[in-house]
Amino acid sequence: MEHPAFEQKLAWHCAPALMGLKAASLLSLPAAEYPGLATLAGRYNASLRGPRFLVLGHCRKRALLLVYRPELLEEALRHPLARRILADAGYPAEAPLPWLLRRLMDRLKREGEFPHEVGLFLGYPSEDVVGFLTDPDGTGCKLCGCWKVYHDVESAQRRFLQFRRCRDWLLDRLEQGSSLVSLLGGQAA
Questions:
Q1: Cα–Cα distance measured from residue 103 to residue 101, given in angstroms and rounded to the nearest whole number
Q2: How large is the average pLDDT for residues 117-142?
Q3: Which tens digit of pLDDT belongs to each residue from 30-85?
Q4: Which of 5, 16, 101, 156 could form a disulfide with 21 if both were Cys (CB 3.0 to 4.6 A apart)?
């Protein structure tokens, strides 16, 4: 299962989630270039241990692929503040992860834009999601990087650096001829 261009895009946009440093990443792909994205995602799910791939939604021009680590995402969504935000958005407090993901997919489809709680599903700190909910134009954010930071700037700066190094490492290995399956401990499909 070799898809070098796809794997380069995954590495650039999703390296921290692929490598287990972040709960999830979201990749927007041209629908015309990936008409069989759900099948491709299924092949990676069957081949890789750890990261999971889920097509969250699509329109005529774009498809949204969520790359996530179930255990990290469940942990992020169990944070008390995250639970409160999700409850306010209509998610049951004790719902299992697959149900929460289906609810997110439904909201994306119905609303046609990103619901604000999507940051929780991407593993952003709950405090920063609250900051964005109250300040969506970002005028009060303290740092803008992988997300708008309203709370702990030092921690976010460390994480952003860690994410950048992770991405660079993964891209370098792919450019040297490795595949995601070989790098992430999977089995060729």
A1: 5
A2: 92
A3: 999 999 999 999 999 999 989 999 999 887 799 999 999 999 999 999 999 999 99
A4: 16
pLDDT score, position 153: 96
**Could you tell me if 130 and 85 are in contact, meaning their C-beta atoms sit under 8 angstroms apart?**
yes
Residue type for position 50: G
Cβ contact 162:21 at 8 Å: yes
Distance CA(148)–CA(156), nearest Å, equals 10
Please check whether residue 108 is in contact with residue 57, taking contact to mean a CB–CB distance below 8 angstroms: yes
Q: How confident is the model at residue 1 (pLDDT cuts 50, 70, 90)?
A: low
DSSP readout, the chain? ---HHHHHHHHHHHHHHHTTSSSEEEEEEETTT-TTHHHHHHHHHHH-SS-EEEEEEE-SSEEEEEEE-HHHHHHHHHSHHHHHHHHHTT--TT--HHHHHHHHHHHHHHHSS--TTHHHHTT--HHHHHHHHH-TT-TT-SEESSSEESS-HHHHHHHHHHHHHHHHHHHHHHHTT--HHHHTT----
- Residue 120's pLDDT band (cuts 50, 70, 90): very high
Contact, 174 vs 7, CB < 8 A? Answer: yes
Other C-beta atoms closer than 10 Å to the C-beta of 141 total 18
- State both tokens at 101: 């993901």
